[in-house]
Amino acid sequence: MEKPLLPRESGQFVAERSRDVFIRDAGVQKVAEMLYNLRRSDALTASGWKALNWVFVVDTMNFSFWPDNEAQQCEVTYKSTTYTGYMTLCAAITRAMEEGVPITDPKYFSQMSVEELGKVLRSDNETAMPMVQERHQVLTEGGRVLLEHGGSFRSFISQAGNDAQKMVELIVEKIPSYRDEATYEGKKISFNKRAQILVADFWAVMEARGEGYIINMDCLTMFADYRVPQALVYLGVLQYSDALMEALKNGELLPSGDRREVEIRGCSIWSVELIKQRLHKMVQETDGYVCNINSAIIDFYLWPFAKQHHKEMAHIPIHHTRCIYY
């Protein structure tokens, strides 16, 4: 069986053939300069947080938070702050832990019922979190895999040594729901968004604890979702064709694997690689040292940027694809 291209090579392959999504050099330069000016700030660090099994539970269910109707969003309030989107999941898992639900124990979440998970993920209002059945399926599957490999995420991931590339390969091989692949122009490609985030979050936790050095972090790309591409369009890095922009503005759903959906994700990956290359060149030429800001850190900056500027970016539609991959 043909192995799919790795995410970085997939991004380049798609970007070189894309018909509806284009990378603009001026935008690449602009974002590289933005990041250059932030190169010594906390904005460009991997901030570590939470326990590893918490990270596994959240990253396993980290997909498809956009509402069918913008006016009706799933909301979760935790410690008097109300969250929407991805943060509803984080808040719901933390709330469940405080309520005494052993939600981060694979022995529990590998065999919890859909009803039990529904209670954990309950919304404050009538709008439930999307895809609870699918979240249940991937979480119980992930829990069973952890139980087969020592009973924790730490013991599972330790099989890959301290190599980020091997970690991604292990996750994708052993846990089917993390296998984020497509076919484009007859070529098998991969984006592996959640597997890469899981490795990046593991790295962030280890950095925060001052434990262990993880090699090959530069193999990770940005995490191709629906929020960061919107920011890349807003910043002038990506440009959509008129036909694609019109389809998105009309609310057309793009099926997972649709050519246009693959082009949005692939060009997002490759554009961030180009931004990273440009940033490294600027740091080397201007400051005289080797820059260690990788694509994961650039994504860690762009995703909150998109959330903070969501009002200014409201005229740029996000692409809607209901799937378990992002």
TrEMBL record:
GO terms for biological process: tRNA modification. Keywords: Hydrolase. GO terms for molecular function: hydrolase activity. It catalyses: queuosine 5'-phosphate + H2O = queuine + D-ribose 5-phosphate. Its EC number is 3.2.2.-. It comes from the Eukaryota. It is an enzyme of class 3 (hydrolase). Catalyzes the hydrolysis of queuosine 5'-phosphate, releasing the nucleobase queuine (q). Is required for salvage of queuine from exogenous queuosine (Q) that is imported and then converted to queuosine 5'-phosphate intracellularly. Belongs to the QNG1 protein family. This is Queuosine 5'-phosphate N-glycosylase/hydrolase. It comes from Gambusia affinis. The lineage of its organism: Eukaryota, Metazoa, Chordata, Craniata, Vertebrata.
